[in-house]
Design brief:
Shape: globular
Largest sheet: 6 strands, parallel
Mean pLDDT: 97
Distance between the termini: 42 Å
Number of strands: 20
Strand order of the largest sheet: 3-19-15-16-17-18
Strand content: 25-35%
CATH architecture of the largest domain: 3-Layer(aba) Sandwich
CATH class of the largest domain: Alpha Beta
CATH topology of the largest domain: Rossmann fold
């Protein structure tokens, strides 16, 4: 007899789930978040949210008298379904006579790889990808300098974005280790800023997951200088579908989205596990994003792990190492191996760490993780290794996504 589970797997690819089995002797808890099965938002609900913005006039009113518009969308490392949101945006700004040829869609790649045509079809939909002007942001070129933020971050931003008369953003609100959450002003920085701005922001103090961090405050200060007229924020369910939209001011709407997200992503913890499995979905297309598998245990006080627990990170990483011009490439300004950090040395010194992925090599893994992390490509082989360490009846917890937050205990 075996225990059978399905976990979300390989964002933007089919099938949407990975099926995993555990021996019946294992004590397994599948730690699903509160909003795991929240239904996908309908087109009418999307339109209603955009027509009833938080903290701003209607988008059609903001657009009046504007000659052109940019719409910034997040990239393929996020599952935000821009294709389902954009039609309502086009309809609204069309009321102000901003027609198709006056709209540029900017792909907010930050320091990630550019998106190709197939990516655009998946993210934007085939009609939009084949009809509208779609441009990748370039963090090294086509920039304008706008001084510094309050804390001295140099502000260099995409020139096309800067010169547009109407600025709209669509982004997913998911926990982030630097900015606390995605969405809101984060589409501006790092999304459409230059490499010097990105470097300063990625290096800044005051990071954290699931809260308003000092890094985010700097991001929002820069957005106030650069400009962002209308922000559309998506909260996701377990398989990456948009379950709620919050539209309006990049601060006010974003804060409302966070309130909803904190409940939707909230997850009850099971303590003292022999093995913890952390799935990197929805940021699982590339190995470069896999550190976010640790987001959950970093999101709040918990006793999930013992000093002898084994940790398993899980990611298909179907694009291999992936790309990040600041932190992912040999020789890039902020590149380092996780194993070189004091946090890793302190937290992992007594624990075995495994990485389950069918699509990467050991050199790929050791580009980001230390040599003593095990790369396992076969699930049965992984189970055998874990039983050699913890016996035939270990206590295990599975965290199906990287966007989950540890439940906040009210006192």
């Amino acid at each position: 007899m075996t225990k059978h589970y399905k976990i979300p797997w390989a964002a933007w690819r089919e099938p949407k789930y990975l099926e995993i089995d555990f021996p019946d002797s294992w004590d397994v808890s599948n730690l699903r978040m509160e909003g795991a099965d929240y239904p996908e938002v309908t087109s009418q609900e999307i339109k209603k949210s955009i027509l009833n913005p938080i903290g701003t006039p209607k988008l059609s009113d903001i657009a009046k008298g504007k000659k052109n518009a940019v719409i910034v969308v997040d990239d393929m490392t996020r599952t935000t379904q821009a294709s389902k949101i954009l039609p309502a945006v086009f309809e609204e700004i069309g009321k102000a006579n901003i027609t198709n040829e006056k709209i540029t869609i900017i792909l907010a790649i930050g320091a990630h790889r550019p998106m190709n045509k197939n990516d655009c079809i998946l993210k934007l939909g085939e009609f939009i990808a084949n009809t509208y002007n779609v441009e990748n942001h370039h963090p090294y070129e086509n920039l304008v300098s706008l001084g510094e933020s309050k804390i001295g971050t140099p502000i260099e931003v995409n020139k096309t974005y800067h010169e547009a008369e109407l600025k709209i953003a669509i982004g997913g609100v998911i926990p982030h280790p630097l900015a606390g959450y995605g969405g809101g002003a984060k589409i501006v920085l790092p999304g459409v800023c230059g490499i010097r701005t990105l470097e300063a922001n990625h290096s800044a103090n005051g990071a954290g997951i699931g809260r308003i961090t000092d890094v985010r405050k700097d991001i929002e200060d820069i957005a106030s200088i650069v400009g962002l007229d209308f922000s559309i924020n998506a909260v996701l369910n377990e398989i990456g579908d948009t379950t709620k939209i919050f539209a309006g001011h990049y601060l006010d709407a974003h804060r409302k989205a966070i309130e909803f997200a904190q409940k939707a992503y909230s997850t009850k913890v099971v303590n003292a596990n022999d093995v913890c499995f952390f799935n990197c979905y929805p940021e699982d297309s590339e190995l470069n994003q896999s550190g976010k598998g640790f987001n959950f245990i970093s999101s709040g006080p918990n006793n999930m792990l013992t000093l002898s627990s084994s940790i398993v990170l899980m990611s298909p990483s179907y694009e291999g190492r992936g790309f990040h011009s600041l932190i992912g490439e040999t020789g890039s300004k902020l590149y380092s191996n996780y194993g070189d950090s004091d946090v890793w040395k302190a937290a992992m010194s007594t624990r075995a760490v495994f990485f389950f992925s069918p699509n990467i090599s050991k050199p790929d893994l050791n580009h980001f993780f230390p040599e003593d992390v095990w790369l396992i490509k076969d699930w049965r082989n992984l189970i055998n290794h874990l039983e050699q360490i913890h016996g035939k009846s270990p206590k295990a917890a599975v965290v199906p996504t990287s966007i989950q937050l540890i439940e906040r205990i009210k006192t």
